[in-house]
Amino acid sequence: MPNETVTHSILKANGLTLKWVEDEVVREVPLTIHYNGEEIATLLCSPSQTEELVYGFLLNEGFIRVPQDVQELRHDPSDHLVWVEGKPCNLQKELMSKRFVSACCGKSRASFCFANDVLMVTPLTSTYSIPLQEAYSYVQFLQSNSNLFDLTGGVHSGGVGYQGKVLQMSYDIGRHNVFDKLSGSAFNTGLNLENHVIFFSGRVSSEILLKVAKMKVPILIARGAPTDMALSQAAALNITVIGFAREQRLNIYTCPDRIIP
To answer: How many of the other CB atoms lie within 10 Å of CB of 206?
Structure first.
């Protein structure tokens, strides 16, 4: 298990009083992925669930579609390098341009910036619905099971739920990495996410909404706010977006029929 935090000496202010204390700071590492001998991306991420992150990234970027597409995955944790040997795909030449994917939420992967994003998403046909109280239960679980955030304040977290049960959890310094880890974990275990819920600690941008669409998840519950572009995409792709979810409060922005009072 990798060390998730490092200790730093900081000068802490309490009113006009200053005091040196030891503080836990979340780690950030660069993970460089090679696919069939080509360097394709460097992700800034937390040093956990590395294989899940790589599988989810390759899946969501169109390199792989089924587990059999990957022949070998090798990880060097000391140098933060991953080598994947896999099946060549039609999109591979377009995807091989190196991209530095930041943990922050700027211009790393703008909405529909790449042709494969357009090709990989279609409107969902799921009629899956959940009781409102189930949505609240996922929010409560997220609040009660964010130990690394409580310690450092430096990570996002998310999970997959079904019929009130939490099936998977992940966390990372990067919002999009959380979704890649959830996607990769489901991919590795053969979990079909079509009638499941994803709950998430952050805000919902267009890049996050696209990841949810690629995962074919019909309901997204977030503690943060959605953007207008994300909501336009959610309406077009038939995805229920819930934001500002707190204990017994939330906002349903799109496709409200999936939430039963």
So the answer is: 22
Distance CA 239, CA 104 (A): 24
Separation CA 38–CA 51 (nearest Å): 18
The pTM of the whole model exceeds 0.90 = no
Active site annotation includes 105: yes
Residue type, 95: L
| Cα Rg, the chain, nearest whole Å | 19
Quick one: tokens of 136?
A: 């609240």
- Range with the poorest average pLDDT among 76-80, 113-117, 215-219: 113-117
Identify the active-site residue in 45, 89, 104, 105: 105
The candidate with the shortest Cα–Cα distance to 122, out of 206, 213, 59, 58, is: 213
